[in-house]
Amino acid sequence: MPINISKELPAIEVLKEEKIFVMDEDRARTQDIRPLNIIILNLMPEKEKTELQLLRLLGNTPLQVNISFLRMTTHRSKNVDKSHLDTFYEKFADIKDRRFDGMIITGAPIEHLAFEEVNYWEELAEIMEWTKENVTSVLHICWGAQAALYYHYGIGKYELPKKISGIYNHRVADPTVKLVRGFNDIFQAPHSRYTAVSVEEIKNHPDLELLSASDEVGAFIIMSQDAKHIMITGHLEYDATTLAEEYERDLSKGLDADIPENYFPNDDINERPLNSWRSHTHLLFSNWLNYYVYQQTPFEWK
């Protein structure tokens, strides 16, 4: 089944070229079906790239999904046209009286700041509090995962000696958990961050379960015991070339950036990276939508 998005969204043409089943809102209204309503709080600077990455994944399941985008009003985005935000993004005040089956809160390149120093932290905290009663399950990515661990469970982040950037092996702790159903015992995933969270604090927290971790980069997939919150500390949604683009961006800023680990073939930046995490990415999003959104959400919100 398709994802339902605005027929004017720029990503729609790319998705159609990639054979992702897309349905615009006009055709969706003609179908007698209860679609899932998913809202994406997109905190990434290059919003159109993130839109495309996430829509690919949400459009690859048997479920029909209505997609809405949410933006912060206390922060001005510099890397996207205001007209794009005005056309395709809603404000929290516009949606706070609605309920959603699922929500995605993305990462953001602001790890050097304490959470309370982020200019939209109070607004984000209000949104995260709102999700407790108005969203069935929330998927938090990278900085979004760290923010959720801090706000909901009191687990802070700490700075790393240098940026983690590359592709790393991860081990599944319990393959019977539905979120990782079908995963290989060991799988690869991208990371790109300057901070980390404590594995021990997660393991010792009564409301959390560590589903996957890496010997090299620590905790990866964390889930609350009630499955209300799922935290992914890396970037499974990344395209094959995203880390290369970030590496080039860091170099252009004059940063002392290391080549992403286990990424370029033969560590040659002139070689095109291969996507070795795509299948597990689709599997995780499919499992989340099926087991933790579709199977859990009420048919009619009361």
UniProtKB/TrEMBL annotation:
Transmembrane segments: none annotated. Substrate binds at residues 163, 192, 249. The active site is at 142 (acyl-thioester intermediate), 235 (proton acceptor), 237. Its EC number is 2.3.1.31. Transfers an acetyl group from acetyl-CoA to L-homoserine, forming acetyl-L-homoserine. Belongs to the MetA family. This is Homoserine O-acetyltransferase.
